Amino acid sequence: MSRLHVVRDPSVDDPVANLPGVSDKTEAKLSRLGIATIRDLLLFFPRRYEDFSTITPIAFVRPGVKTTVRGRIYDIGAHQTKYKKMALTEAVLGDDSGTLRVVWFNQPWLVKSLQKGDEIFVAGEADLNGGLVMKNPDHEKVSLRPQNVARLVPIYRETEGLTSKWLRPKIQRVLPMADQLDEFLPAELLTRRSLMGRAEAVRQVHYPASAVRLDRAKERLAFEEMFVLQVAAQMAKRARKARSAPVVPFDEPTARGFVKALPFKLTNAQRVAAWQILQDLACPEPMNRLLEGDVGSGKTVVAAMAMHHAAHAGFQSVLLAPTEILARQHADVVEGLLRPFGVTVALLLGSTPAAQREPMREALGSGGIAIAIGTHALLEEGIRFQRLGLCVVDEQHRFGVQQRLALRGKSERPPHFLTMTATPIPRTLGLTLYGDLDISVIDELPVGRQPVETRLVKPEERDEAYGFVRGQIAAGRQVFVICPIIQESDKLGVRSATAELEKLRAEVFPDLAERIALIHGRLKAAQREAVMARVQRGEVAILVATSVVEVGIDVPNATVMLIEGAERFGLAQLHQFRGRVGRGAHAAFCLLFTDLEDPENLQRLQAVITHRSGFELAEIDLRLRGMGELYGERQHGFDLKVADLFDLQLVREAQDEAQRVLDADPTLAHDPVLRRHLTSYRRVFALD
Ligand code: ADP
Ligand code: MG
Fold first, then answer.
1. What is the CA radius of gyration of the chain?
2. Band of residue 150 on the pLDDT scale cut at 50, 70, 90
3. Which residues of 65-80 are buried (b: 16+ CB within 10 A; e: fewer)?
4. Contact between 119 and 149 (Cβ < 8 Å)
5. Would you say the CB of residue 297 lies under 6 angstroms from ligand 1?
6. What letter does residue 499 receive in the DSSP assignment?
7. With a 6 A CB cut-off, is 293 part of the ligand 1 pocket?
8. 3-state secondary structure at position 572
9. Which ligand is nearest to the CA of 294?
10. What is the pLDDT of residues 625-652, one digit of tens each?
11. Do 375 and 350 form a contact (C-beta atoms < 8 A)?
12. For every residue of 136-160, which 3-state class applies, written as one string?
């Protein structure tokens, strides 16, 4: 047999398992940190640094202060302690200024690796113990590259059994391979902004030569992150604008007619938003607008006004809702608003029987239906539109880019897009993550809305709170109880909600057992509808629901929103639940039940009590818990590692540079390296 070896240089794309000292077990641990290849390892940046960068002359070492010293070993020896039989290694270090005693416990091997005459760094704290003694310091021979001491030492995010100390030499070993990482920032930009090169920045961020170099490295890496994000967003925006959508001309009498027929006066914010949308519809560039507004701010009416306009101009609209309950509710509202104008509205759900679906499909294809409202069922293969003009999506995060592309193919021209959301998006996020969106904000509630009194309920206050709930029910009001998902296996929260229902019926309100109902995502559409009908008729006093089946339900008689395990929810989400009550004439309450009594949790929840604005709560949550918690990391497919999302100046500058690059080369045809780096954003923006 010949020994055939393919000899090649190691590549950054090689698996980490190829590195010496990485066992199967460590490989699994690394993968928990998201590290599979050497590239991943290089791009696994430290979370922070310990500063051992200044070397102190021995004469200046003070007790109790973390210090790094460089000295020669004058003497070293090992012995056992008399009483506890501990191995003790003692050394005397000296430099030009003086001498220092150093002691290591239980590291007898040190006498073999360190010898008299060696020059070493030690880093640690000295104690006064019959003279200054440094105990168990980190150490490093001067002849070697200083790795663990004598500089800014990187501290990494750690996982069980995988420490920074373990990671450091592994990363240091592959640092020379950073040269293989592509430089994807244009050369001209690098020079003009005097940014550090990518390979150098990666090396410096792991092993900074100085605090100044570290800052430059971070500056470069933050810029690169924000820049790529902006290029992706701008490209998506340009690609969209290059297509041509149906033109829905603005027609003043139509707009006036709609507003006049409403049973209430639009708020100012609603009027402005509607105006912006109608302007967009009148342009051939496809609209991509986000309509943001707190729960109950009246987004649906604004959307209905746009759909009415489209219908008047002879175009069809669709309204996509995340759940059947919400789709039904939207259909009721929109039909109620548009029936007087003779606009046909159809409801299409997953549960719609085939016998009804077929004629509906035909009517959509022939233009016989002006407005189709429904769930994912509307995205199915066989459904086509004759002249689709506008697509409204309620709560976009449930619909991905895939679904949007599916809709685009259902009509000759790409429709205008309007997304409604109650999840507020802080301003900087609007420019980054949503860089391809125009935003309208309804920041005003219709007059006469009750502020919802919010309270934290600790375990010992539970009975009292139930007493309060009982009083509300006795006064004829209704109550929502929201249950969190506790076990991972209980994906829809069905078990959690069912257990809550049983507890309330058996232990808390046995006398009301008949009037306590349950709603969750596993129920058949007909069952859910039956439950909701009982709620609307007031037969149900307490409705237990999972957070998955969001209570996107309008029940003016409901006055209490009780949330179990409140700590498990995001603040903006709690705020949305709260917005489900306080819609009628009676005072409304939100009770946040929590068993976690640590101050941090209580303080976080306290924010829901002190803040009434969903925007502020979202921003607080974003700072406290990061983006993943607020918007669902997986949905967006990225997380900023270095760049600060709140750094408005960075966002702006990255945006300007992205514009400049795309103005010169709109498709990045001449910059395949940068193009390749956009791939990770394909799921975020509809990049073609
Ligand atoms: P959102 O979807 O923003 O949570 P909706 O559109 O469902 O809010 O509106 C909530 C309720 O407020 C609905 O019953 C709606 O009819 C009502 N509403 C909307 N706009 C106004 C307004 N300007 N004045 C009074 N009530 C309004
Ligand atoms: Mg709504």
1. 32
2. very low
3. eebbbbbebeebebee
4. no
5. yes
6. H
7. yes
8. helix
9. 1
10. 665 554 443 334 456 777 777 777 888 8
11. yes
12. CCEEEECCCCCCCCCCEEEECCCEC
